[in-house]
Fold this sequence. Notes:
Layout: E1 11-12, H1 15-24, E2 32-36, H2 42-48, E3 53-57, H3 61-70, E4 76-79, H4 88-94, E5 106-111, H5 117-126, E6 131-139, H6 140-147, H7 157-164, E7 168-174, E8 179-180, E9 187-193, H8 205-215, H9 223-229, H10 234-243, H11 257-272, H12 275-282
Parallel strand pairs: 2-3, 2-5, 3-4, 5-6
Antiparallel strand pairs: 1-8, 6-9, 7-9
Helix pairs in contact: 1-2, 10-11, 11-12
Amino acid sequence: MTVKPKLGQNFLHDSQAIQRIAASLGDLAGRTVIEIGPGRGAITGALAANARHVVAVELDPEMAAVIRAQFPAEKVTVAGQDVLRFDFAAIAENFPNAAEIGSSRLLVVGNLPYYITSPILLKLAENHAFIDRAVLMVQREVADRVTAEPGSRDYGLLSVTAQMYGPAQNLFTLPPSAFAPPPKVFSTVFRWRFAPRFAELQVEETTFTRFLRQAFAQKRKTLANNLRAAAFPAAAVSAALANAEIPAQARAEALSIESLAALWRCLQTATAASPDAAAVAQS
């Protein structure tokens, strides 16, 4: 079987880690689990032993064929496609959890290819309505950014974006030797529970997400400078910072999600009186 480095194929062979990953999803009885990048099926086996059904999303036709040959179709369905085009809603409808679960939301697990980790995380966030929780293995530095707290070295746009969709927690880290072929980096497994905070924080998802990109645009710049660079009027920025009780020289990396949400609400108020400023906020 040929390993394809361009697809980020590093296969986990640590049996203890495989069991820990499956266990980290919680009780699988009656549940439908989506596995991203099953590879040779090491984690797939641990999932299929306890879950009602596993849908394995595998882009590589050779690996997809291995999974189909290894597991019965009534237990494991193989979706031979790019996960970025995968229809989570259709799976939730066509492979429902057992009735006693009381929810149609899916569980997700995956050893994510390093080269498309961020797009996959965003894909999961976009499909939060269909996902209960995910246990994901990524490059250690990425996991540290996803789970980082305000003011820490790793805290930034990825941290806030991910955590707006629910709490994320690092579980354990694996060395390169746990994989074949061994990657050049350590990998961390983290759990992400999907419980979006937009309603709680009184922010609108699309415009607030856009605001976050603007606020974190340049790490070396203050928050005020980043917002002015995004064409928000200086007066509106100053008023919003003051009303949100945020120091004028603050950087986005120092602010909690709650503070950023408060600033967004104040900025919406400050820009509402100005047609030009309001147009910037919606652009």
